[in-house]
Amino acid sequence: MHGPGHLEFEEYTLASGLTVILHRDGFSPAAAVMVMYHAGSKNESPGRTGLAHLFEHLMFKGSEHVADGEHFRLLQEAGATVNGSTSEDRTNYYEVVPSNYLELALFLEADRMGFLPGAVDQAKLDNQREVVKNERRQNYDNVPYGTAYETIAREVYGSGHPYSWPVIGSMEDLSAASLEDVKEFFRTHYSPANACLVVSGDFVRGQAVEWIGKYFDSLPRGVPPAPVAPALARLAEDRHIVSPENVHLPRLFLSWPGPMRETREDALLDILTTILSAGKNSRLYRPLVFERQIAQSVSAFTDGKEIAGMVTIDATARPGESLSEVSRCIFGVIEELLAHGVTEREIEAAYNGKEAQIASRLTTSLGIANGLATARTLTGDAENFNRDSGRFQGITPEEILRAARTVFSAHHVSLSIVPREKMASAGTARPDNDRASDHTSTGTA
Asked: 16 - beta bridge partners?
């Protein structure tokens, strides 16, 4: 097995503590600028959730030298693509600009890195608070199955765990967020020493280095906050939750505690879940969707993050089918897997799919910038972007079987989302071969 080619890049650190990574390519006469802060929702605390995502919004509302609305206007008039995103582990901001507008992008990122708090006032906070609340309503609360993973994370990780609350936060915490809370989050997490800047694409190196030094080198260094310690999830019992909601079809979620990202176990489970659900001939799709036709879709994936992870299988029942039957079929597939393992051919096919995904990130300057920034921020070494393919090499059926037994023999969370009016006939997704000594609850949404 051979991975994608090695990506050449340059890395150095400014006096301000900012890590800078440069990669030149010739995909197009454009450059991607990515700033990633090592701060996400896991850096919040109970009662103060949603601050990282709320602050992402405020970062686009002007800084001390850039008026409200000017950040977007200046870049969009230059033909740039602009956006940002927040996850549990990091927040990123990026611009893809024509090469002759690289200095503008660097200035704007530096100004909000160093000079944002003075421009944040109560009116801006109140405005963006309502924007985020509407985002939560539109993308989570009022969307079919929209809060499923919020429920699962709360149950798998447990109260107080940094991954137990949603990235977008709760309505109550968003309402309670004060101007001082927001500014304190900036002071703690948005220093150059807690950030990484990547420039990828078509640019003149000497000129880019000069501009980066000009705008970022004199910013106050700050002190990176202490890292959040790894905290793998452990369940003392199975938990079964039935949630009647305004949906047309029942959907089942089964989640087990899993490993952190960038570990051998995470790579093994990535290959395993690909074998389980990728393609029409996969272990889960074939019996559930094609042969028995009791589900209209099924997927499996591992979600390894910086300090913990989990493995999830979800399936949507066909009209008239029960989640109990869907669950029995899924556990039957798992039992077969644990009894007989997987084949070399299945591993090879899954590996080839991972190689294609990794290679696709190398086709754009933005994909490269994001990959390098993520590797540097979450693993401490940008070279791990080049090593990503190596995580999947040399995997054997015996390793996969050991990983499967470790995960699937542990306790899990089962969430059944059922149509309100059909709750009785949809079933609770507790098959005979599932554990009986568990906690069962019914939730409402």
From this structure: none
- In angstroms, rounded to a whole number, what is the distance separating the alpha carbons of residues 336 and 119? 60
Q: Are strands 195-201 and 19-24 parallel, antiparallel or unpaired?
A: parallel
Beta bridge partners of 22: 10, 199
Residue-range domain boundaries for the chain: 10-216, 238-442
Whether the pTM exceeds 0.70: the reply is yes
- Rg of the chain's alpha carbons, rounded to an integer? 23
Kindly report the backbone phi and psi dihedral angles of residue 385, in degrees, each rounded to the nearest multiple of 5, phi listed first: -60, -40
CATH 3.30.1300.10 assigned to domain 10-216? The reply is no
What is the band of 303 on the pLDDT scale with cuts at 50, 70, 90?
A: very high
How much is the average pLDDT of 310-328? 97
Count of CB atoms situated within 10 Å of the CB of 73: 11
Strand-by-strand arrangement of the 30-37 sheet: 10-13, 19-24, 195-201, 30-37, 91-98, 81-86
Structure tokens at 189: 């997490």
DSSP string of 58-107? HTTS-BTTB-TTHHHHHHHHTT-EEEEEE-SS-EEEEEEEEGGGHHHHHH
Q: How far is CA 101 from CA 33, 211, 364, 368, 410, in A?
A: 11, 12, 18, 19, 53
Chain centroid to CA 266: 15
pLDDT of residue 426: 41
CATH, range 238-442: 3.30.830.10
- Helices of type H across 341-383: 344-360, 365-379
Percent of the chain scored above 70 by pLDDT?
A: 93
Q: Using a CB cutoff of 8 Å and minimum separation of 24, what contacts does 423-427 make?
A: 423/242, 423/244, 425/322, 426/250, 426/317, 426/322, 426/323, 427/250, 427/322, 427/323, 427/324, 427/325
pLDDT at 241 over 50: yes
- Average pLDDT of the chain is 93
**Which phi and psi angles does 195 have, rounded to 5°?**
-135, 165
